[in-house]
């Protein structure tokens, strides 16, 4: 009797673990069918017999992104939008280029944990835990160093070096999503009322208007 209960508890635990990331697939692959009119969580599969090797292929990650922008960084993503065969597989990749003093500003991946490795240069990286602690975990990374950003937490990377930096990161979703905090809070369309943001940040409305004007 006790062992039966233990088995049930174990099954319940493993079921909830399976729901902690992208759902597990029930077949070898499910190449995204872009023409399907069926709306499912992800993309419908095309007939597996029509799958071709190109469905699992992407080329171009050797190319540096253009970092001539206000943040001085460029993210080149390789997810299900770029490789149809990633549909249902729960994984994707990004290349991030950083100009000297460039940063990948504070952002959140709502659906993925990220594991990043520095290929070139050095970075100062960090993430902040949820309420109530809001504790910052931050570290200087050099070439070859690896760092993990847990799912759903605000994180950033900053290039303190005088040379450019390059990182590759894997994410535990075919479609991790990105919420860049500054864009979402101060650059939403339409804007969040400056009354609300002034109260939220405990600053004058003029300051909020100034920040909103940057977007
Ligand atoms: C990089 O982006 C800047 C700003 O948009 C643009 O002026 C420049 O031509 C781009 N450089 C390359 C090599 O594409």
UniProtKB/TrEMBL annotation:
<keyword id="KW-0560">Oxidoreductase</keyword>
<feature type="binding site">
    <location>
        <position position="114"/>
    </location>
    <ligand>
        <name>Mn(2+)</name>
    </ligand>
</feature>
<dbReference type="Pfam" id="PF00190">
    <property type="entry name" value="Cupin_1"/>
</dbReference>
<protein>
    <recommendedName>
        <fullName>Germin-like protein</fullName>
    </recommendedName>
</protein>
<comment type="similarity">
    <text>Belongs to the germin family.</text>
</comment>
<dbReference type="GO" id="GO:0030145">
    <property type="term" value="F:manganese ion binding"/>
</dbReference>
<keyword id="KW-0964">Secreted</keyword>
<feature type="domain" description="Cupin type-1">
    <location>
        <begin position="59"/>
        <end position="209"/>
    </location>
</feature>
<keyword id="KW-0732">Signal</keyword>
<dbReference type="InterPro" id="IPR001929">
    <property type="entry name" value="Germin"/>
</dbReference>
<dbReference type="InterPro" id="IPR019780">
    <property type="entry name" value="Germin_Mn-BS"/>
</dbReference>
<feature type="binding site">
    <location>
        <position position="107"/>
    </location>
    <ligand>
        <name>Mn(2+)</name>
    </ligand>
</feature>
<feature type="binding site">
    <location>
        <position position="114"/>
    </location>
    <ligand>
        <name>oxalate</name>
    </ligand>
</feature>
<feature type="disulfide bond">
    <location>
        <begin position="30"/>
        <end position="45"/>
    </location>
</feature>
<keyword id="KW-0479">Metal-binding</keyword>
<dbReference type="InterPro" id="IPR014710">
    <property type="entry name" value="RmlC-like_jellyroll"/>
</dbReference>
<dbReference type="InterPro" id="IPR011051">
    <property type="entry name" value="RmlC_Cupin_sf"/>
</dbReference>
<feature type="binding site">
    <location>
        <position position="109"/>
    </location>
    <ligand>
        <name>Mn(2+)</name>
    </ligand>
</feature>
<keyword id="KW-0134">Cell wall</keyword>
<feature type="binding site">
    <location>
        <position position="109"/>
    </location>
    <ligand>
        <name>oxalate</name>
    </ligand>
</feature>
<feature type="binding site">
    <location>
        <position position="104"/>
    </location>
    <ligand>
        <name>oxalate</name>
    </ligand>
</feature>
<dbReference type="GO" id="GO:0048046">
    <property type="term" value="C:apoplast"/>
</dbReference>
<dbReference type="GO" id="GO:0050162">
    <property type="term" value="F:oxalate oxidase activity"/>
</dbReference>
<keyword id="KW-0963">Cytoplasm</keyword>
<keyword id="KW-0052">Apoplast</keyword>
<dbReference type="InterPro" id="IPR006045">
    <property type="entry name" value="Cupin_1"/>
</dbReference>
<keyword id="KW-0464">Manganese</keyword>
<feature type="signal peptide">
    <location>
        <begin position="1"/>
        <end position="20"/>
    </location>
</feature>
<dbReference type="GO" id="GO:0005737">
    <property type="term" value="C:cytoplasm"/>
</dbReference>
<keyword id="KW-1015">Disulfide bond</keyword>
<comment type="function">
    <text>Produces developmental and stress-related release of hydrogen peroxide in the apoplast. May play an important role in several aspects of plant growth and defense mechanisms.</text>
</comment>
<feature type="binding site">
    <location>
        <position position="155"/>
    </location>
    <ligand>
        <name>Mn(2+)</name>
    </ligand>
</feature>
């Amino acid at each position: 009797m006790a062992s039966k209960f233990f088995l049930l508890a174990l099954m319940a635990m493993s079921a909830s673990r399976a729901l902690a990331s992208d759902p597990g697939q029930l077949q070898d692959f499910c190449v995204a069918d872009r023409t399907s009119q069926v709306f499912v969580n992800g993309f419908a599969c095309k007939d597996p017999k029509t799958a071709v090797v190109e469905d699992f292929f992407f080329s171009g990650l050797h190319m540096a992104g253009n970092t001539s922008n206000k943040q001085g960084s460029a993210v080149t993503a390789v997810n299900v939008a770029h490789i149809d065969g990633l549909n249902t597989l729960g994984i994707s990749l990004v290349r991030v280029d950083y100009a000297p003093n460039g940063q990948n500003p504070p952002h959140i991946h709502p659906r993925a944990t990220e594991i990043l490795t520095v290929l070139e240069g050095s970075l100062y990286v960090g993430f902040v835990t949820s309420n109530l602690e809001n504790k910052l975990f931050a570290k200087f990374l050099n070439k070859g160093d690896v760092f993990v950003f847990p799912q759903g937490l605000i994180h950033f990377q900053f290039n303190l070096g005088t040379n450019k930096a390059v990182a590759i990161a894997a994410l535990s979703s075919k479609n991790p999503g990105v919420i860049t905090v500054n864009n979402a809070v101060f650059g939403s369309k339409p804007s969040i009322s400056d009354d609300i943001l002034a109260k939220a940040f405990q600053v004058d409305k003029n300051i909020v208007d100034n920040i909103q004007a940057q977007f």
